[in-house]
Every structure is written in structure tokens, then in C-alpha cells.
From TrEMBL:
GO terms for biological process: amino acid metabolic process; carboxylic acid metabolic process. Keywords: Decarboxylase, Lyase, Pyridoxal phosphate. GO terms for molecular function: aromatic-L-amino-acid decarboxylase activity; pyridoxal phosphate binding. SUPFAM superfamilies: PLP-dependent transferases. Its cofactor is pyridoxal 5'-phosphate. InterPro entries: Aromatic_deC, PyrdxlP-dep_de-COase, PyrdxlP-dep_Trfase, PyrdxlP-dep_Trfase_major, PyrdxlP-dep_Trfase_small. The modification N6-(pyridoxal phosphate)lysine is found at K293. This is Pyridoxal-dependent decarboxylase. Gene3D superfamilies: 3.90.1150.170, Aspartate Aminotransferase, domain 1, Type I PLP-dependent aspartate aminotransferase-like (Major domain). Belongs to the group II decarboxylase family. It comes from Yinghuangia soli.
Length: 457
């Protein structure tokens, strides 16, 4: 054994203690850490011929790379709906790395059983019935892509073919209808060979990002055959929700697959005040939920659900001599694009077991309260303009005068030591969005965010 590796194995407990102190030090400093670091990125160096051992690598990282990292795990990082990681999530992820399970195969211990157990908890959390079966994937983009892949196979079933076997050319033109789809929908369509141009944007309600159901019905009638509808449970800019029950009711008259992108909006189900926003979610044929957002587990973690696991295995089944047969309960290797993956479910299992529904409802409710407080401050500031009601956890706003992308970028830069906002465009207006999804965020953080925003004006 290489001597550095042998030394690290012999001294592993002490080295893990050092690693523990590094991680704890980073987390302990989040409250005061700059949200975006101004530290200089290290220059590239050649690959070392001889390793430095774990202690040397840790020292190098701590001295040169750790200071350059963002405070994205902290309470004032408001970009990309980025959650932090709960204490239980951290523990679950550390153990995931230590036990190093490939949970795609039944040959690899109980990893698959733990994942199915966790999926059952998540179904209950989001109000889905047992008709929905799921799997863990890397994020919302992959979750949406898996949902679209199953929908594509459903279109083939309607045409009497298998797209997975015969190819997309045998199916022909695909129609996908949506009001304000997330960018990952078009990306998934491109990866699946359906083509971005197959996405038809349907009119939304006046002043809203929610689809106009009457306009959707007109588009369905014009489609002239089976198609895919992508509904939104929480749009990116304003967290608007399509009327899922009304859309599902259209299935009585039109033949379509209903995919719901509920990447972070599904968590509205955890609060009595907002649960109505996701009423009808269970009627979907496939659902996307991103866990490294509001569940506050480490990247990368999301889940996809579908009512048609049979079609899912038609798409993703993997035939090899070393793999078991599909059976009544297919291995996860037959359900997602990945043949190998870590036991992502363990971090989710830990945080759900540690805090339950009540703990995660508390995170959601506190983040909503924080968004409302910032929204009220923006509305009261003459130099700013609120562009949409604060429906859940995102505040979308702009400058009252001359809201150019350049001026907004400069504002973000001036505030970036204390808070991060991300640029966007809403109905042609350059804007900023502040997304609250971190378990640490409290009213004292909101006060600091508001102060930083006012100072940056």
C-alpha cells in the first residue's frame, strides 16, 4: 500500500477529528461569513507526483480554498432557492460517504429498502397517494427529465409503439404545453430528442405566472391528439401556482400526460395556510420535487414520482448478466438514468427522522415569514418596486426608476457581502429575486438583508 495511504488509514480517527473541526469551524462562521467571498482564487498547480496525505491536503484546502467558498449554506444567501443543510442532514451525508453504498442494486445490502422507506415518508409529506412511486435523482433538472421521459413513452403507448425500443422517429412530433415552464423543461426536452421547439407556451392569467386554464383548453383542442402538459407548482420568479385541480379536470375531455414541476412549491403542503396551493398534486401522472432546496439536505438530491412505473422501467431498464431481473419491485438501476449513485436517501431519512413534519413545517413557515418581511420593506422603500405579491418564499422586485440589468447588477455587487440576490426578468422588466429556503434564516437575518439592500441603493 502506498505509504501515505497506509499512514492515513492508521491515523484515520485523529484525521477525521481534524476534518470535523474544519467543517464545524466553517459552519460556526456562517453567520458572519461574507455571502460572496472576495478572496483570491488559487493559481492552478501541477498534479503532485507525491501526495501530501490527508493532513497536508486538509491544510492546503483550509489555507487556500476554504476562504474562497461562498456562504451559500448560510441564512442570507437568497439565490437559486438554495437551502442549507440541517444538522441531521450533515450527519446523514457524512455517514453516506463513510458507508459508501451503491443503492441501485438489490445486491448491495439494504440501501434500496431505506430509499423506499424514505420515499414513503416523502409521499406522505407532500400529500401523494400510494399510486405514486418514486426514486431519488440528482436534482430538479433530472427529475423533470425523468418525468418527461416517462411521458414520452406514454405518448408512444398511445401510438402503439415503444419509443425506448423504436426511437423517437417512430413517434414523430411531440407537443408539450406549459404556462411558465422552468428552463429545465426545455433542457430535458433537448436531451430526450423531443426538441425545444416542441414546447408551446400557453397564455398566463393577467398579471400572473399561472397558466390560463381556458387558454390551455384551447391549446389542447388544437393539439389534435395526445400531448404532454407541464404544470407549475411554484414558478421561479413569483412562486405562482397553476390550478392543478382545474387542469386535471381537463383530462376528462382531452388526452394528455400531466407532469407537475413542484421543485420547491410542493413544500407548501406543509403549512395549513398554503396547502391549498398544491391541491390536486396527487392527480398528476408525474411529479418533480427538489430536496436540496427546502428539505435542506446536501446537494445533489431530488425525487421524482410517477403513476406509471411500468413505463418508467421500459425507458430505463438495464440488461446485463450481473443485474437481477426486473421483478415486481424493480431495482433503482432500472428506474433512473444512473447505473451507479450514492445512497442519497440517507440524508433525507436522517432529517425527516430527526425533525419530522413539525420541524420541516417550521422551516417553511419561518422562511415564508422572512419573505413577507422583506416584501413589506421593499414595498415601503421609494427607490424599489415590488413586482408581484409575496405568495410564498420569493420576493421579486426592481428599481423604481431605470431598472436596467447593469444598475441591478451593481446593486447586487454592493450588497453581496451581506446578502445575495439573483437577477431575473419578469414580463420584460429586469429584476431581482430573493429566495428564502434556509433553515437558519431568522428575523435578525432579514433585518441585516434589508439594511444591506438600503445601503446598496
Amino acid at each position: 500500500m502506498y505509504r501515505r495511504l497506509a499512514d492515513d488509514l492508521a491515523n484515520l480517527p485523529a484525521l477525521l477529528d481534524d476534518t470535523h473541526r474544519t467543517a464545524v469551524g466553517f459552519l460556526a462562521g456562517l453567520a458572519d461569513r461574507p455571502v460572496l467571498s472576495a478572496a483570491r482564487i488559487p493559481d492552478p498547480t501541477p498534479l503532485p507526483a507525491e501526495g501530501a496525505g490527508l493532513a497536508g491536503a486538509l491544510a492546503d484546502f483550509t489555507a487556500h480554498w476554504e476562504p474562497t467558498l461562498s456562504g451559500s449554506a448560510g441564512p442570507r444567501y437568497l439565490g437559486f432557492v438554495t437551502g442549507g443543510v440541517t444538522p441531521a442532514g450533515v450527519a446523514g451525508d457524512w455517514i453516506t460517504a463513510a458507508v459508501d453504498q451503491n443503492s441501485n442494486s438489490a445486491l448491495d445490502g439494504s440501501g434500496q429498502d431505506l430509499e423506499r422507506h424514505t420515499l414513503g415518508w416523502l409521499r406522505e409529506l407532500f400529500g401523494l397517494s400510494d399510486a405514486h412511486q418514486g426514486a431519488f435523482v440528482s436534482g430538479a433538472t433530472m427529475s423533470n427529465t425523468v418525468g418527461l421521459a416517462v411521458a414520452r413513452e406514454w405518448l408512444g403507448e398511445r401510438a402503439g409503439i415503444s419509443v425506448a425500443e423504436d426511437g423517437l422517429a417512430a413517434l414523430g412530433l411531440v407537443r408539450v404545453l406549459s404556462g411558465r415552464p422552468h428552463s429545465s423543461i426545455a433542457k430535458g426536452m433537448a436531451m430526450l430528442g423531443m426538441g425545444r421547439k416542441s414546447l408551446t407556451t400557453v397564455a398566463t392569467l393577467p398579471g400572473r405566472e399561472a397558466v390560463d386554464v381556458a387558454a390551455l383548453e384551447t391549446a389542447l383542442a388544437a393539439a389534435g391528439g395526445p400531448c404532454i402538459v407541464v404544470a407549475n407548482a411554484g414558478t421561479v420568479n413569483t412562486v405562482d401556482f397553476d390550478d392543478l385541480r382545474a387542469i386535471a379536470a381537463l383530462k376528462d375531455r382531452y388526452d394528455f400526460w400531466l407532469h407537475v414541476d413542484a421543485a420547491f412549491g410542493a413544500f407548501a403542503a406543509l403549512t395549513a395556510e398554503h396547502a391549498h396551493l398544491v391541491a390536486g398534486l396527487d392527480a398528476a401522472d408525474s411529479v418533480c420535487v427538489d430536496l436540496h432546496k427546502w428539505l435542506n439536505v446536501p446537494y445533489d438530491s431530488a425525487v421524482q414520482f410517477t403513476r406509471r412505473r411500468d413505463l418508467q422501467t421500459d425507458v430505463f431498464r438495464n440488461a446485463a448478466a450481473y443485474l437481477g431481473p426486473l421483478g415486481d419491485e424493480p431495482d433503482f438501476v432500472h428506474l433512473t438514468p444512473e447505473n451507479s449513485r450514492r445512497l442519497r436517501a440517507l440524508a433525507a431519512w436522517f432529517t425527516l427522522r430527526a425533525y419530522g413534519r413539525a420541524g420541516h413545517a417550521d422551516i417553511v413557515e419561518r422562511d415564508i415569514a422572512a419573505a413577507r418581511a422583506l416584501g413589506e420593506a421593499v414595498a415601503a422603500e421609494p427607490a424599489l418596486r415590488l413586482l408581484a405579491p409575496v405568495r410564498l418564499n420569493v420576493v421579486c422586485f426592481t428599481l423604481a426608476d431605470e431598472p436596467t440589468a447593469e444598475r441591478l447588477a451593481a446593486l447586487v455587487e454592493r450588497a453581496s457581502d451581506e446578502a445575495l440576490f439573483t437577477p431575473t426578468v419578469l414580463d420584460g422588466v429586469p429584476a431581482l429575486r430573493a429566495a428564502f429556503s434556509n433553515w437558519r434564516t431568522g428575523q435578525e437575518d432579514v433585518a441585516r438583508i434589508i439594511a444591506a439592500l438600503r445601503k446598496a441603493l
